[in-house]
């Protein structure tokens, strides 16, 4: 989320035509086209954030600016060249890093929350805890995971919550 994404297309010499067919999960389909004989590009129903990376006669790659969950979906590049037709399809999944919060509850137990991540984050503790995380799904496809530290002994001074996620790992420590 929020970064730029480049999807490459098979570059071929003597390209006649390049077409990107975009079918996002949200919103309608869009098409970007380039015809070499007329050196002309065309765009149908595409937002300003989705466009050619450079000039399509040099590089047929697609660039998505400020990637959001609405960009998830299928992206297919079709290249027509003298040596044949070539296709490449991407299935774009957008990762949303969770917001990490660590606090002490009313009983002095550390509570770790990984809020609104996609996919759901994994929570672990140092020292180890046998707590069972609770998950709450949201309508935008994100998940909040909550884990309460259960101590094996009462002389704990510092605990660390470790949140593992494909978009990056995070950790915080607290003494309750």
From TrEMBL:
<dbReference type="InterPro" id="IPR013783">
    <property type="entry name" value="Ig-like_fold"/>
</dbReference>
<dbReference type="InterPro" id="IPR007110">
    <property type="entry name" value="Ig-like_dom"/>
</dbReference>
<dbReference type="InterPro" id="IPR040012">
    <property type="entry name" value="CD200R"/>
</dbReference>
<dbReference type="Pfam" id="PF08205">
    <property type="entry name" value="C2-set_2"/>
</dbReference>
<dbReference type="InterPro" id="IPR013162">
    <property type="entry name" value="CD80_C2-set"/>
</dbReference>
<keyword id="KW-1015">Disulfide bond</keyword>
<keyword id="KW-0812">Transmembrane</keyword>
<dbReference type="Pfam" id="PF07686">
    <property type="entry name" value="V-set"/>
</dbReference>
<keyword id="KW-1133">Transmembrane helix</keyword>
<dbReference type="GO" id="GO:0150077">
    <property type="term" value="P:regulation of neuroinflammatory response"/>
</dbReference>
<dbReference type="GO" id="GO:0038023">
    <property type="term" value="F:signaling receptor activity"/>
</dbReference>
<keyword id="KW-0675">Receptor</keyword>
<comment type="similarity">
    <text>Belongs to the CD200R family.</text>
</comment>
<keyword id="KW-0325">Glycoprotein</keyword>
<dbReference type="GO" id="GO:0009897">
    <property type="term" value="C:external side of plasma membrane"/>
</dbReference>
<dbReference type="InterPro" id="IPR013106">
    <property type="entry name" value="Ig_V-set"/>
</dbReference>
<feature type="domain" description="Ig-like">
    <location>
        <begin position="60"/>
        <end position="175"/>
    </location>
</feature>
<keyword id="KW-0472">Membrane</keyword>
<dbReference type="InterPro" id="IPR036179">
    <property type="entry name" value="Ig-like_dom_sf"/>
</dbReference>
<dbReference type="InterPro" id="IPR003599">
    <property type="entry name" value="Ig_sub"/>
</dbReference>
<protein>
    <submittedName>
        <fullName>MOR1A protein</fullName>
    </submittedName>
</protein>
